[in-house]
């Protein structure tokens, strides 16, 4: 039982990208205090910037993760040179479907996409994570990611 990354289908991409935009907008509202409309617009803007051709964006690696032919999640990374990340490859999303969590699939997906990035010439790999996502932070730290910058805020009104 080993995890493999396979090219994502157009239908899977549309479904997962729409769900990701909604979750990202929710995080922007909760973590950054943005209004609903502003958060939704920002989520749409950022995804359009990094994935201008969607699934066919040249610098994007969009993969479904499968174990024994069953899709268990997906991963999205970009090669160095993508908008906003010219100096290194970037992990935009790694997601294990709820019914497949806590089995090591997230770790396996990050390691598999890291191998693919390395084969394509990437030498550094970065990511952003919301501060409240302690589960993801623990995973990334266990994989050798370290903090490069940190943003902090507090309400004053």
UniProtKB/TrEMBL annotation:
The keyword Magnesium does not apply. It holds the Pfam family Acetyltransf_1. One of its GO terms (molecular function) is acyltransferase activity, transferring groups other than amino-acyl groups. It comes from the Bacteria. The keyword Transmembrane helix does not apply. Keywords: Acyltransferase, Transferase. InterPro entries: Acyl_CoA_acyltransferase, GNAT_dom, YpeA/RimI_acetyltransf. Residues 3-157 form the N-acetyltransferase domain. This is N-acetyltransferase domain-containing protein.
